[in-house]
Amino acid sequence: MKKLAVVDMMFRWPPDGGARVDLKETVTRLARCYDVRLFAPKVDCIIPRGHIDGPLPFEVETIPFAPKEFTGPILATRFQSVLDRFAPDAVFVADGFQSKPWVAKAVKKYPYLLRFYAYENVCLRYNGLFMCGDRPCYRTGLSGRGLDMVLCTLCGSKTLINDRFSKTKGFSDEFINARAYSLNHWRRTRYMLNNASQIVVYNHLLKSILERFGWHSTVVPGGIDTDCFPKKPFRNPDGVVRLGLVGRITDIYKGFRPAVRALNLLHRRNINAELHLTGEADDIYGTLPGVVFRGWFSRNNLKDFYQSIDICLVPSLWQEPFGLVSIEAMSAGRPVIASDVAGQREIINHLENGYLAPPGSSEAIADAVVWCLDHPETVNRMVEKAELHVRSHFNWDTLVETRYLPLVDSLFYDGNK
Predict the structure, then answer these.
(1) What is this structure's pTM?
(2) What pLDDT does residue 401 have?
């Protein structure tokens, strides 16, 4: 049986967040076909990684690091040594933020598949925002042009004191430890892309950016276990309209503020609406009229949240790579109003299986809610199409069998050339 190493710098168990759920579902199925071992750092600095609580569906080897050791050069050397002992036939390079180019250095002797879960390494703001303030920005140092490299490095460095990093210091530590402040980051990233046997991305936006500079990639969306999000029939609300939003309100790019403003607009139109959120209230937003904090939901009971709301909002401000919340809500039989951004366009056909609104527009969100209330029969048909679309296009077994297995098999062929 062929040996496949999976390297993930963000791994922890049980999984939390879209990228780690994606990894879990993919690797679990790949382990049925290959001798798979996942390699991950075990370190308590920056973002805790390598912590395992509960049984695993595949083999995992964690590599211990002291906090001061978790730097790019040491990471590359240590991972190379451990991988050489396993001697894989191929490698699946998974999540890694700014550390990913160092991982590529560690696996350079093996054919590898490079998976992007966002725009990490292509844009240095956080894990790749492609935003300059409130405006999209698609400049990237990957072009290899000196001006682009300098400006993008400066932009990334500014985020070290940006509010996003000051609230979550771990990302600035990651930036520094991976030496992403150096122009050599772009050279390492270009090397990583040049040597990848396969590059896999979530959406056509990133595919087009990579192809502009000569790198071919394959779009493979995320998936869902539809049994975990059973459909509950949609009803046209005749009392309180319960809008739902899944995500962290501290992340301004999730669009919580436009959603609150849309709620206020609905109240001015005499529509009795509430905005239900996963998470805990804070001193500011917890006191807003109509905003209901429901506490955190585990992956196992998130279906209860979707089934308790009438309409799901996904008002992202950035070019979200994929729309996991959208396909979960669609599977659960809830109409989705989402921002017209990259990841959502991979899923939603406007007014066919969901509603796309301009990002950041509170008026457009409010208008979309009113439209849903005024067109119950159309919304019911939309919900039916959405559920079928999710089951046919985003089922994990189908995705791995039809998309991942051919890509991974090609790695073994590449390694035998």
Answers:
(1) 0.93
(2) 96
